[in-house]
Amino acid sequence: MRVLKPLSAVTVAVSLLLSGCGESTSSTTGSEFTDGGDAQNPTNPNNPTDPTTPTDPTTPTEPNTFDEAALVANLVNNVLSPALTQFHTFAQAQQTQIGAFCSAAKAQADDVDNLHEQAKDSWRAAMTSWQYVELMQVGPLLTNGKELKSKIYSWPAGGALCSIDLDIVYHEAGIINGNANQPYDIKTRTSDRKGLIAIEHALFNVNYDHNCTFENDALAPWNGRTLNERKVARCEFAHTVAGDIVDNSNEILSRWQGDNGFANQLLNAGEPGSSFDTPHLALNEISKALFYMTEELKDKKLGTPLGLFVNSCGFEACPQDVESDISEHSKENLLANLRAFKQIFTGEGSNTDNTVGFDDFLDAEEGTEVKQRMLTGIEEAEAALMTIEGSLKQAITDDTAKVTEVHSKVKNVTDELKSDFINKLALELPQTSAGDND
Questions:
Q1: DSSP secondary structure string, 223-273?
Q2: Closest CA to 199 of 158, 248, 237
Q3: What does the pLDDT look like over 115-133, one tens digit per residue?
Q4: pTM confidence score
Q5: Contact 43/275 with Cβ under 8 angstroms?
Q6: Contact 85/253 with Cβ under 8 angstroms?
Q7: Which in 132, 338, 345, 408 has the greatest CB count within 10 A?
Q8: Are strands 175-176 and 179-183 parallel, antiparallel or unpaired?
Q9: Cα(70)–Cα(267) distance, integer angstroms
């Protein structure tokens, strides 16, 4: 797949070669549909669309001649699967690099500062890779209220610094709040106290005092300890969290891969044993991932810190509400999101000989103008983002107009996504985007 080169000093370079495709199946009915409310559950085999009856406006019909099974196969094998395996590689590297930093910090070795920077670089690489996955949420990433996803990355719900500081102390002591009957176990901790957000605080925050407005018995001694003691405690906590991320990433892969994995459910749509009655319903499930651009990217990552919605500052520009504010990695996150969106839309993944994407589907359904508007919108959004000098956090205050321009360009894409895109391809508008704040 095309791998993002982050704006930071990190160079993300991985070559992934995955192959395989599903059985070719073409659609036979319909051409467009009008979204009229709650649609049928696309993964419910007991509720198929009957092509012999009049089209219900709440039910997607299936376009005519395009080989949707081939599109599903390319997106699964050459875009979605490589993103998941790439992140797992970076998660493992992050665990290793943080471990090396911890050893040097405990020994107060001469190269500790260099290893600290390398540990931060490993986080940047892992975070950038994860931001591709953030925009590719299907299957195991959505199961049980996004449980596994949240264990790796819980923004914006997680990340309260006081909660993380408490866990750093509990982790070091091996017990919760001085209670020997409550041994510390990262597996049982809530998602807001671990994951990539917790590692960001532990590695990047240069304020080594705790962030709580109160002090329990376990936390009280913290601010009086030596800087190196606090640095080691944070690092060792980050190393444990990094291991938990690897475990959860491995669990996602195990649910995605294999004969009974979700990838095969998509690839074998229409065949016995698949939860998808047709390739069109499998494709509809994948298309929902694109709507991350609406609420999460447009509204939360851009609109909220801009003050378009209520934030920590009320209804005004609020730089501390950007994503990854401690590391100031927000811009890189957005860039990865935009490029992941483009990968799904164009089908440009690990196999450069196969680039069947939604853009080709639009061409087949007389939606070439829609395709071109969306491609132009993606390019303009990325170009607007790249005009921002420095971090997004700084630009929210010092160059608000440029951030507003990025928001405007992203909105151009999401407006097309929610209207002409789904109508031309007879796809569903996810309920989470039906009430999108435009």
A1: GGS-HHHHHHHHHHHHHHHHHHHHHHHHHHHHHHSSTTSHHHHHHTTTSTT
A2: 237
A3: 999 999 999 999 999 999 9
A4: 0.85
A5: yes
A6: yes
A7: 132
A8: antiparallel
A9: 9
